[in-house]
Amino acid sequence: MLKNYFKIAFRNLWRHRVFSFINILGLTVGMTAGFLIFLYVRFELSYDSFHSNTDRIYRVVSDIKTPTEVIKAAGPNGCSLVSIKLSTQNLPKTIASIENKWNALIPARPFSYYFLDEFFDKQFRSEERLGKLFLNFSVLAIIISCLGLLGLASYSTMQRTREIGIRKVLGASVPNIVNLLSRDFLKLVAIAILIASPIAWYAMHGWLLDFAYRIGIGWWIFVIAGIMAVLIAIATVSYQAMKAAIANPVKSLRVE
Amino acid sequence: MIKIEHISKWINLGNIRNFILKDINLNIAEGEFISVMGPSGSGKSTLLNIIGMLDSPSEGDYQFMDSDVYKLKEKQRSNLYKTHIGFVFQAYHLIDELTVYENIETPLIYQNIKNSERKAIVADIIDRFQMVGKKDLFPTQLSGGQQQLVGIARALVAKPKLILADEPTGNLNSKQGEEIMELFTTLNKQDGVTIIQVTHSEKNASYGKRIIHLLDGRIEKTETK
Predict the structure, then answer these.
(1) What is the pTM of this model?
(2) In A141, A200, B120, B134, which residue has its Cα 20 to 30 A from A16's Cα atom?
């Protein structure tokens, strides 16, 4: 009994080869993306936990965030950070002299230093990395949804074979049919854009608030994103639609 | 109107050539009413599809209203076919998602006829077929005979010169079938529409002025009344 079910299931998969292939591929990409996201988030959240002797590592976090908080007067008791404006001529010598003075004043603390421009650079590099990450995941998300769309398109054309045949007999041309089939999917894409735009705006707005100097979010960004989504959807659906439109109506209208 | 010369169609199964139609020659004048008869698999429907330009033969020539069909460009051919040929099917082949009115309107949409004109033409034909009360119903809400009437109305709406009917009464009971055949006869006599129908029943075939018997892809004999 069970063996029979499997046999029939496989036969069905084989019969709709393209459709099965698209679905399985979509599922595979989706699951892979899911695993990747899970692993990546776990990795990002766990600071140094893959190190041996994890429990002996300590992380020191200061609540200094902006350069203005950093500027504080030097003093023997308490303050740990001093920001100094330096002339860039003969930098090594200047630093060496500062180190000497520090060691003389506060011998209990080792002297370490960094340049502010490097610090900012590091901060922006992490934003850049976030950007790259977002790009990768959004490409992945677009691929997954395109595969879904492709699956949906091939399924609905399969269901509408008879109607397409009738319309062709009644004089519909290939562009007529492609138009008919694509229109439904463009509706879906339009709805998706309407849902996605406010969410994207809200998220972007929140993220941009972190920056002192930031760009505005113009309406044209959403227009461009929408047009791109529509183009991608058309490219995805048009293959199936073309195939259905070119097919000979005699075959799909046979009754026997 | 129709001139078919040496038309053959075959399918290659391995090395064996399987003929569906073999060397068919046929002349049909405007205003004729022709019945095509023959057992299943004798190539009736294929012949009808070739005349209707839905299918193409493997070999042969076909002239429709003085133009060589196979030498025309795709666009010209589809124009010729859109304006001059109407199809009626055994299974009606109405679009289930559309109402009676929209079904009848569809061929006109594909001929790029203006909305106002379309309305007038469709209203006219709905009136003629006495379906005013049913124009907003869907095909599944109608009986088989009524569905076939809608199918014929749809085939006629573009005022074609030729109606091709593939077993139009095959799914109907004898009374409904008779009505359809009466309708065909009137169309043929009053409007001068050329009709070619494929049928299994002797009785329905006898409505035609000429009966062509097909057997194994050849014309076996032709009776003229």
Answers:
(1) 0.71
(2) A141
